[in-house]
From TrEMBL:
Belongs to the HrcA family. This is Heat-inducible transcription repressor HrcA. The lineage of its organism: Bacteria, Pseudomonadati, Pseudomonadota, Gammaproteobacteria, Lysobacterales. The keyword Lyase does not apply. GO terms for molecular function: DNA binding. Negative regulator of class I heat shock genes (grpE-dnaK-dnaJ and groELS operons). Prevents heat-shock induction of these operons. It comes from the Bacteria.
Length: 356
C-alpha cells in the first residue's frame, strides 16, 4: 500500500505518477497501463505497472473513471505533482519580454494598470485573469486642493501617488473663504503629502490632542476639512475590489462544460464576494499560492485551480494577481507566468511611488 505523501513513493511510483499526470495534462484523457509502459521508460512488466497504479488509486492519487480502464489524477495527485514532482523554471525570456512590453510603461492609474494585468494574464494563459484592487486609501496622498462652493460646501480634489484623482464634495459647519481653503491645502500638502489617509487622520488627531484648547483657527479649519475629506465615501466600494477578465475562456474546457457548474462559477465572478475573500487570503501570504479543486473552500471553484501571487509597493502588500482555470492546466508554465506578472506589477507600482 502506497501512502499519499510524496516522500513515501518509491522511484518507480513517482515516475509513473509523473508520466500519467503529464500525459493527462496534455490531452485530458484517462491514461492506460499500456501508454504508461511506453512513455515512462521503465523496464517493468505490465502487471507491475497495474499493481503500482492500483496502489496509487488506493492512496487517492489517481482514479478510474467508470467509462474507461485508464486513470486520471485526483486533486490530491495533482497537489503532489505540483509540490514535489515538477521543477519550476523561470519564465522563458520571450514570455517575460511580452509581459514587459504589454504592461503600460508610462503614467497610468493603478486601476487601469490592474485591468491591463488581468487581461494580459487571461491572454497568456487562456484562463480567467483575476487581480485585486486595493483601497484608494492604501496609496499615499500626492496633493490636495479645495474649491469653495455655495452653501458652505467645498470641492475636495485628492491626487494619490498612483495618479488616481478623487473629487468629493463635503459639507462644512460654516463657509470658508478662498484664502482659508488655500492655507488649509498648503498646510496639508506640506505636512502630509506622501502619507496614507489613515496615517494623516492619526497625525491630525495627535495634533489636536497636543494643542488642546489652544487649537488655532487655521488648524481648526484644517482639521474640519481633513476629517470630511478623508472620511470613507458614503456610497460605492470603500474596500478592495477584484477585476476579472477572460471568464468566457473557461467555457472552452470540457471539464467545466456542465451548465450548472458554469452557472455557479459565473455567478461567483459576478458577485465577487467569495472570490475577493479568497484573493485577500492569498495576498496575506508571500509567494505563490495554489488551490486545486476543493482546496479553495468555495463550492463554485471545486472544479478549478486557482494560482495567485501577491504584489505590493514600498514593502507593503497591496493585493494579489492570479488565474482561474480547470484543474487540468500546465502548472509548470502557469505558475511562472503569475509569479513574473506579480513581480513586474510591483516594480511598476514602486516606480510610480518614487515619483511622489
Amino acid at each position: 500500500m502506497i501512502k499519499p505523501h510524496g516522500h513515501d513513493l518509491d522511484a518507480r511510483a513517482r515516475r509513473l505518477l509523473r508520466t500519467l499526470i503529464a500525459q493527462y495534462l496534455v490531452d485530458g484523457e484517462p491514461v492506460g497501463s499500456r501508454t504508461l509502459s511506453r512513455s515512462s521508460g521503465l523496464d517493468v512488466s505490465p502487471a507491475t505497472i497495474r499493481n503500482i497504479m492500483a496502489d496509487l488509486e488506493d492512496a487517492g492519487l489517481v482514479a478510474s473513471p467508470h467509462t474507461s480502464a485508464g486513470r486520471v489524477p485526483t486533486p490530491r495527485g495533482l497537489r503532489l505533482f505540483v509540490d514535489s514532482l515538477i521543477e519550476l523554471q523561470p519564465l522563458p525570456r520571450a514570455e517575460m519580454a511580452r509581459l514587459q512590453r504589454e504592461l503600460p510603461p508610462g503614467p497610468t492609474t493603478t486601476r487601469d494598470l490592474l485591468g491591463n494585468v488581468s487581461t494580459l494574464l487571461s491572454a497568456m494563459t487562456h484562463f480567467a485573469g483575476v487581480v485585486t484592487v486595493p483601497r484608494q486609501a492604501d496609496f499615499p496622498l500626492r496633493h490636495i486642493d479645495f474649491v469653495a462652493l455655495p452653501d458652505a460646501r467645498v470641492l475636495v480634489i485628492l491626487v494619490f501617488s498612483d495618479n488616481q484623482v478623487q473629487n468629493r464634495i463635503v459639507q462644512l459647519a460654516r463657509p470658508l473663504g478662498s484664502r482659508e481653503l488655500e492655507q488649509a491645502a498648503n498646510y496639508l500638502n506640506s505636512h502630509f503629502a506622501g502619507l496614507r489617509v489613515d496615517d494623516i487622520r492619526a497625525h491630525l488627531l495627535a495634533e489636536v490632542r497636543k494643542t488642546g484648547s489652544e487649537l488655532n483657527q487655521l488648524l481648526a479649519s484644517t482639521v474640519e476639512l481633513a476629517t470630511a475629506s478623508f472620511a470613507p465615501p458614503a456610497s460605492g466600494p470603500a474596500g478592495p475590489d477584484v477585476l476579472v477578465s477572460g471568464q468566457t475562456n473557461l467555457m472552452g474546457y470540457s471539464e467545466l462544460a456542465d451548465l450548472q457548474r458554469l452557472r455557479e462559477l459565473f455567478e461567483a465572478f459576478q458577485q465577487k464576494n467569495e472570490l475577493l475573500q479568497l484573493m485577500e487570503v492569498c495576498a496575506r501570504a508571500p509567494g505563490v499560492r495554489l488551490f486545486i479543486g476543493e482546496e479553495s473552500g468555495f463550492t463554485a471553484l471545486d472544479g478549478c485551480s486557482v494560482v495567485t501571487a501577491s504584489y505590493g509597493a514600498q514593502g507593503r502588500v497591496l493585493g494579489a494577481v492570479g488565474v482561474i482555470g480547470p484543474t487540468r492546466m500546465a502548472y509548470e508554465r502557469v505558475i511562472p507566468v503569475v509569479q513574473a506578472t506579480a513581480g513586474l506589477l510591483s516594480d511598476a507600482l514602486n516606480r510610480a511611488a518614487t515619483t511622489l
